[in-house]
Write a structure and sequence with these properties.
The protein has eight helices and eleven strands. With about 300 residues, the protein is an alpha+beta fold. It has two domains: about 55-155, no CATH class; about 185-300, no CATH class. The model is unreliable at about 5-30 (pLDDT under 50).
Length: about 300
C-alpha cells in the first residue's frame, strides 16, 4: 500500500565399539583391574541439541521456516538472495509456550524489534531508507516442540521501492549504508495513472523529478485496519519530516510548497511489529532539478 497526498488541505564409531565388545565377550576373560561391568565407566551421552542456523552467512533462497534437512548457505561473495545478520533466542514466557510465535504475537514483535536493531548495526543505517527488506525465519513447528527457540534475521536487497521482491546480489551487506550507497533512496520521478501513483522511477537528483525521499517515522501502535483509515495522520507526520528535511517552516504555507507520498510496511510486516513509514516529498506543480535537502523557503517556495 502506498499513498500520494498532495495538497489535501524470505556409525563407524558405533561399529568399532560393538566389535571390541564382541571380542571381550568371546574370550570370557576379564582384563586385569576390570570389574566386569562394561557400562558403568562410560559417561552418559548428552541429549542432542536442536539445530540452530548460523549468523553472518548468506543463503541462496529466502524461507520463513528453516529446516535442518534443507539448510544451505553460500559464500557471500557468490550470488545469494539473503544474508543472516543475527540469530536470536526467544526467552521468558514465549520460550515456555508449546506453540511457535506467529505474526501478531508479542513474542514475534519483540523478535522483530531485535532484528531491526541488529540490522541497523550491521548496515550502518536504517534499512527502511534503502532498497532492503528484513525478514524473520523461524524453526519448524516440530523443531519448536522439540526445544528449538531461535529466530533468524535475514536482510535482502530488493529491486525498488515498489517491487520489494528480493534480488540476487554478491557481497555482504555489512556497512552497506555507510557513505554514498546506491541502495539508499534518493530522488524519483513518480509515474501516475490519473491521480493514482503507479510507480516511482528512481532518477538522479540533478535530473528532472517530482519526488525525493526525506526519511522514516515510526507510527504509533495500532491495528493494520486502523492505520489504513488514518492516511491523513500519516500525511501530517510525513509533512513534518518534509519541512525539517527542506528547512522550511511547518506552517500553513507548507501544503503550498509540497505534498507527500508515503510507503508503510506491508500488512505482514505490520503484524510482525514493523511500524516504519517511509516518507517522500512530492512536487505536484513543478519539476525539481536538485535535492531539496536544506533548500529553504527560496529553494522550495510556496506557490
Amino acid at each position: 500500500m502506498r499513498r500520494l497526498l498532495g495538497r489535501a488541505p524470505e556409525v563407524l564409531t558405533a561399529l568399532a565399539l560393538a566389535a571390541a565388545g564382541a571380542a571381550l565377550l568371546a574370550g570370557c576373560v576379564r582384563p586385569g583391574g576390570s570389574d566386569g561391568d562394561l557400562t558403568d565407566d562410560w559417561p552418559a551421552l548428552s541429549a542432542p541439541l536442536p539445530f540452530t542456523p548460523a549468523s553472518g552467512v548468506c543463503m541462496p533462497r529466502i524461507t520463513p521456516v528453516v529446516q535442518a534437512a534443507t539448510y544451505e548457505t553460500v559464500d557471500c561473495a557468490r550470488n545469494h538472495l539473503a544474508e543472516a545478520v543475527h540469530v536470536g533466542t526467544f526467552t521468558g514466557a514465549v520460550a515456555r509456550q508449546r506453540e511457535r510465535p506467529e505474526p501478531g504475537s508479542p513474542g514475534l514483535r519483540a523478535a522483530r524489534a531485535e532484528c531491526d536493531q541488529r540490522a541497523r548495526e550491521v548496515l550502518g543505517g536504517d534499512w527502511h531508507s534503502a532498497r532492503l527488506a528484513l525478514n524473520i525465519a523461524l524453526p519448524t513447528v516440530p523443531a519448536w516442540r522439540g526445544g528449538a527457540r531461535w529466530f533468524r534475521c535475514d536482510l535482502s536487497e530488493t529491486n525498488s521501492i515498489d517491487n520489494t521482491r528480493p534480488i540476487n546480489r554478491t557481497g555482504s551487506l555489512r556497512g552497506a549504508m555507510i557513505g554514498d550507497s546506491a541502495l539508499v533512496h534518493g530522488c524519483f520521478d513518480p509515474k501516475l495513472i490519473g491521480d493514482n501513483l503507479n510507480y516511482m522511477a528512481p532518477v538522479l537528483c540533478t535530473e528532472p523529478h517530482r519526488a525525493e525521499f526525506v526519511g522514516v517515522y515510526v507510527e504509533r501502535d495500532m491495528s493494520w485496519d486502523e492505520f489504513v483509515k488514518a492516511d491523513q495522520q500519516a500525511h501530517k507526520r510525513c509533512m513534518a519530516l518534509i519541512a525539517a528535511f527542506a528547512a522550511v517552516p511547518n506552517n500553513s504555507d507548507l501544503p503550498y510548497r509540497a505534498g507527500s507520498i508515503f510507503y508503510p510496511p506491508s500488512q505482514r510486516e505490520w503484524q510482525e511489529g514493523d511500524r516504519g513509514v517511509r516518507c517522500f516529498l512530492w512536487s505536484d506543480d513543478r519539476k525539481l532539478t536538485r535535492s531539496m535537502r536544506g533548500a529553504g523557503p527560496q529553494g522550495l517556495p510556496a506557490i
